């Protein structure tokens, strides 16, 4: 779709964005980095207000979870971006005669999810401005006030730094149609949201980065620290009441340790259900007859979900743990669940755990992430070789590491590429380098040609 027939208000927004970006494209590295740092610091300093507003408007998740998430992401993303070159000459390799020059793309369209409106606004703003781009945000309608307040706070702090006023803008009254038009008019789209919106981004006629759904599979190996693994899985699975795509959905444990590990889950706050009738009730509370997640049980507490299912658990219950039966249960139970509900399977051979985990990922979640708790290097690498995922997390809580952390080498982000498995362009974490153009200058390399023997040698 070209500009002809596009919404007039959107075209005015785009015009102002391009004018601001043309000015911003002249900024030097220090100016860019000061602005990027200020975005992160603004969110960090105002996290209490923004976390409260997020929960009040979206009616999802919890205040303390959002507070922790907004502050943690502000720190780790800025720390990762600090000191990295993103404009002008970013690399000069004298030995190879290669010079790389970074340049802006232009205007970025950022489609934001309902579940993390503050952190996704922050990260896309930081990545875009870092490379000299402007950005227009398309928030979820149920999070537009949260995004508006986030931008107001950021712009108030950026103004004294000389940042153009229209460099960060948003659709004030977002809709599916306006978002579709935006994606067709900007220079690149970053779509972090539902499968439908990501598909729409890829069919917009413009370059786009999208994410795939999660369905993280966790394997507890023989010889692992069972209690440590269980506490990490529960903490990750229940963070923000199960909303993050990087939280463990299924846990695979050795058959001979099944009861022991279930007892540890219960000890650490889970309510366990193994009766098929109870499991079915919880399934029906989470999914409708067509297999779609029910909106009224997304991002609520374990006790609230149990009540919807006609079951009773203690109010302080952290998660509901369901006994898995791969052969006889409805496949819908193996899907991603945006709630503090997990499923647990027993395996005899390690390969059996991999087989079920692979099947669950084939159902939904290919390309995302998997977890293994183990001290067996062979098994750890077997997970990496076998499962169709972009990230394997070892002996850590997936939700706190798959999107980057101080204690893991993954790039800090809020947008997780799922590779070609997940119908996305990235099999890594999206960051600033994906929002730049790079011009490469190649100088002659004297005497580089190898001999014929060297060319055709196997090694």
Please report which band the strand proportion falls in: under 5%, 5-15%, 15-25%, 25-35%, 35-45% or over 45%: 15-25%
Cα shape: globular
Q: Which strand order do you get reading across the main beta sheet?
A: 10-11-12-9-8-13-14
* SSE topology string: HHHHEEEHEHEHEHEEHEHEHHEEHEHEEH
| Uncertain runs | none
Q: Tell me the count of domains.
A: 2
Structural classification: alpha/beta
- Architecture of the largest domain, according to CATH? 3-Layer(aba) Sandwich
Q: What's the end-to-end separation, in Å?
A: 50 Å
Biggest sheet record: 7 strands, parallel
DSSP strand tally: 15
CATH superfamily of the largest domain: Aldehyde Dehydrogenase, Chain A, domain 1
Number of helices: 15
Please state the CA-atom Rg, rounded to the nearest Å. Answer: 24 Å
Q: In which range does the helix fraction lie?
A: 25-40%
Average pLDDT metric? 95
Describe the structure concisely.
Helices cover 40% and strands 18% of the residues. It is an alpha/beta fold and 459 residues long.
Question: How is this fold's topology laid out?
Answer:
Elements: H1 8-24, H2 29-45, H3 47-58, H4 63-81, E1 88-93, E2 98-104, E3 107-111, H5 117-130, E4 134-138, H6 144-158, E5 168-170, H7 176-185, E6 188-191, H8 195-202, E7 208-210, E8 216-220, H9 226-238, E9 248-254, H10 258-267, E10 270-273, H11 276-286, H12 302-308, E11 319-323, E12 341-347, H13 350-363, E13 367-373, H14 377-386, E14 389-394, E15 436-442, H15 452-456
Parallel strand pairs: 3-4, 3-6, 4-5, 6-7, 8-9, 8-13, 9-12, 10-11, 11-12, 13-14
Antiparallel strand pairs: 1-2, 2-15
Helix pairs in contact: 2-4, 2-5, 2-6, 3-4, 3-6, 4-5, 5-6
């Amino acid at each position: 779709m070209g500009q002809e027939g596009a919404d007039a208000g959107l075209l005015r927004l785009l015009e102002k964005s391009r004018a601001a970006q043309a000015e911003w494209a002249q900024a030097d590295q220090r100016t860019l980095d000061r602005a990027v740092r200020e975005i992160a610091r603004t969110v960090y300093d105002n996290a209490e207000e923004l976390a409260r507003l997020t929960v009040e408007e979206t009616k999802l998740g919890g205040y303390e979870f959002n507070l922790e998430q907004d502050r943690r992401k502000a720190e780790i993303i800025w720390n990762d971006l600090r000191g990295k070159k993103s404009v002008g000459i970013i690399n000069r390799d004298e030995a190879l005669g290669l010079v790389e020059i970074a340049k802006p793309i232009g205007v970025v369209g950022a489609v934001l999810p309902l579940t993390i409106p503050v952190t996704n606004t922050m990260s896309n703003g930081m990545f875009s401005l870092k490379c000299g781009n402007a950005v227009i945000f398309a928030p979820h309608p149920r999070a537009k006030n949260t995004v508006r307040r986030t931008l107001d706070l950021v712009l108030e702090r950026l103004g004294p730094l000389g940042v153009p006023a229209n460099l960060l803008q948003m659709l004030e009254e977002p809709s599916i149609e306006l978002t579709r038009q935006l994606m067709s008019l900007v220079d690149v789209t970053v779509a972090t949201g539902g499968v439908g919106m990501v598909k729409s981004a890829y069919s917009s006629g413009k370059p786009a980065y999208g994410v795939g759904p999660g369905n993280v599979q966790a394997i507890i190996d023989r010889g692992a620290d069972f209690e440590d693994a269980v506490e990490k899985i529960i903490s990750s699975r229940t963070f923000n009441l199960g909303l993050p795509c990087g939280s463990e959905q299924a846990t695979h444990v050795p058959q001979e340790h099944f009861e022991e590990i279930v007892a540890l889950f219960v000890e650490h706050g889970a309510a366990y259900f193994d009766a098929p009738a109870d499991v079915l009730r919880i399934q029906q509370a989470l999914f409708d007859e067509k297999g779609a997640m029910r909106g009224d049980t997304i991002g609520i507490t374990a006790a609230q979900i149990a009540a919807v299912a006609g079951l009773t658990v203690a109010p302080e219950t952290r998660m509901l743990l369901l006994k898995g039966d791969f052969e006889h249960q409805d496949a819908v139970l193996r899907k991603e669940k945006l709630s503090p509900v997990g499923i647990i399977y027993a395996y005899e051979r390690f390969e059996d755990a991999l087989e079920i985990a692979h099947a669950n990922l084939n159902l939904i979640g290919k390309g995302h992430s998997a977890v293994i708790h183990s001290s067996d290097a062979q098994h750890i690498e077997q997970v990496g070789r076998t499962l169709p995922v972009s990230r394997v997390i070892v002996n850590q809580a997936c939700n706190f590491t798959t999107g980057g952390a101080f204690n893991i080498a993954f790039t800090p982000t809020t947008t997780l590429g799922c590779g070609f498995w997940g119908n996305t362009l990235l099999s890594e974490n999206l960051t600033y380098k994906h929002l730049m153009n790079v011009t490469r200058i190649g100088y002659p390399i004297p005497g580089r040609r190898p001999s014929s023997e060297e060319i055709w040698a196997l090694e």
